[in-house]
Design goal:
The protein is mostly helical. It is built from 17 helices and four strands. A four-stranded mixed sheet has the order 1-2-4-3.
């Protein structure tokens, strides 16, 4: 998970329930609703002035300076995130996640009142807590979850970072390590680097264990916890691993050579190497073992995997997955967008939204290929595991004229199906002109 020196990205997943009336064939992207929360409206300078009042005069001078620096910089960084346009509030997903937090902390209203939870439009499988009680949960995390209880445990992990003040504690300690103060005075640069990582791992392990204590006080099923580490271990993979149909992008006028498709894709090889010396987090294997030992004699009697509701969870996860398709295009991860949309179209083959995402991805690949910048958006198939490798292999073998023809044909069929869609029309006209001028004008 991503971590900065101001924000701890410690948790790992988050889940929400979304609009009950969402028509997935005509999906409408998530939007925030209602008045802006105070987190968005209070000036960073005001937040800084408030926070620095908490600095104790009994602290060492160097620690007081480090805390003051932390409050100044972290508030501006958090506000950059809040005002980035990527944060959702009062939307179906954020509302669902907050419902899960309500269930998790039903016996601790004092803690619940101190935290605010928002959804972040990011494909990363991550969640993170701030020092002032905000928890951000990425859509990419929600898209990978298997059940509601997994989300609850991840929230427990993030709550621990907040309640035990890990964010500011880590910052102060790392400043001491960086500047070689106290016990770190005689360490080499390499030893200081290792010390920083070790300290981060200590906090992550603490968040795992104390988070488990929070979780076990709730009515959520302890058996779901171990599944969180599966989500983490396979976070780099699509949400499912299904064979990519060779004929998905073909038609009677466009058939790709057999050489464009692999006879076998690379197997998924779980990496559970114990060597985490260069990481800020303990290895997934170590975390799995440590938590597993705590759960050996824990009963699941009277506990539930779903407290808000299984139907809501499934709807929210599906919304998150739909949002991911669009985010992949916006991030120029076109091949991921195509395979991801392909998986979703298994259940929703008539979704205009998903068809359009694929059209946008083909358009983007063609434009970058035409302008000699294909490496900016194409990932070598050799770096990919699982069935999605087939897509990356196809777009590595295809040449520029073929890719342009594929994009034009696909967009042409979309325009015939949706003649009043201006975006589809503009993409088709643009790539058609480019194809004619570059490859067929002589």
């Amino acid at each position: 998970m991503v971590k900065s020196k101001f924000l701890i990205g410690a948790g790992i997943l988050f889940l929400s329930i979304v609009s009950y009336g969402q028509d997935f064939n005509n999906y409408i992207p998530l939007k925030s609703f209602g008045s802006l929360p105070e987190d968005f409206t209070i000036l960073s300078s005001k937040k800084y002035e408030h926070d620095k009042q908490s600095i104790s005069k009994s602290d060492k001078l160097r620690d007081r300076k480090a805390k003051d620096e932390f409050y100044l910089e972290s508030n501006y960084i958090i506000d950059d995130i809040l005002l980035s346009g990527k944060v959702l509030f009062n939307d179906p997903v954020s509302s669902y996640v907050n419902k899960v937090a309500d269930k998790l902390l039903a016996g601790s209203p004092d803690i619940r009142d101190k935290i605010r939870i928002y959804t972040l439009k990011s494909t990363a499988v991550n969640a993170f807590a701030t020092n002032n009680g905000i928890i951000f949960v990425n859509l990419g995390l929600i898209a990978q979850l298997k059940d509601e209880a997994q989300l609850a445990y991840i929230l427990s992990h993030e709550l621990t970072h907040f309640t035990r003040k890990h964010v500011i504690t880590e910052y102060v300690e790392k400043q001491n390590i960086k500047k070689g103060r106290g016990a770190y005075r005689d360490l080499s640069l390499e030893e200081r680097y290792i010390a920083k990582n070790n300290y981060s791992k200590e906090l992550e392990s603490e968040a795992d264990l104390f988070g488990l204590n929070i979780y076990l006080k709730s009515d959520y099923n302890p058996k779901s916890v171990m599944g969180v580490f599966d989500v983490l271990q396979f976070a780099y993979l699509p949400f499912e691993d299904e064979i990519f149909d060779k004929g998905f992008l073909e038609n009677s006028d466009l058939i790709f050579p057999e050489s464009y498709f692999l006879k076998e894709t690379a197997p998924i090889k779980p990496d559970e190497d114990d060597d985490d010396s260069k990481s800020t987090h303990p290895s997934t294997k170590k975390r799995r073992i440590a938590i597993g030992e705590k759960l050996v004699n824990i009963s699941d009697e009277g506990k539930s995997t779903y407290l808000v509701g299984e139907e809501e969870f499934i709807k929210i996860r599906k919304i998150a997955r739909y949002e991911m398709a669009r985010l992949y295009v916006l991030n120029r991860k076109y091949e991921q967008a195509i395979y991801h949309s392909y998986l979703l179209m298994k259940k929703d083959p008539e979704s205009k939204y998903l068809k359009t995402v694929i059209g946008q991805a083909l358009y983007g690949l063609s434009k970058y290929y035409n302008h000699g910048e294909y490496s900016e958006v194409h990932t070598s198939f050799g770096d990919i595991e699982g069935q999605s490798q087939q897509v990356y292999h196809l777009f590595e073998k295809i040449d520029k004229p073929e890719l342009n023809v594929l994009a034009v044909q696909y967009l042409w069929s979309l325009r015939k199906e949706y003649p009043n869609d201006e975006q589809i029309d503009l993409m088709l006209k643009d790539i058609f002109k480019e194809m004619v001028y570059k490859y067929f004008s002589e």
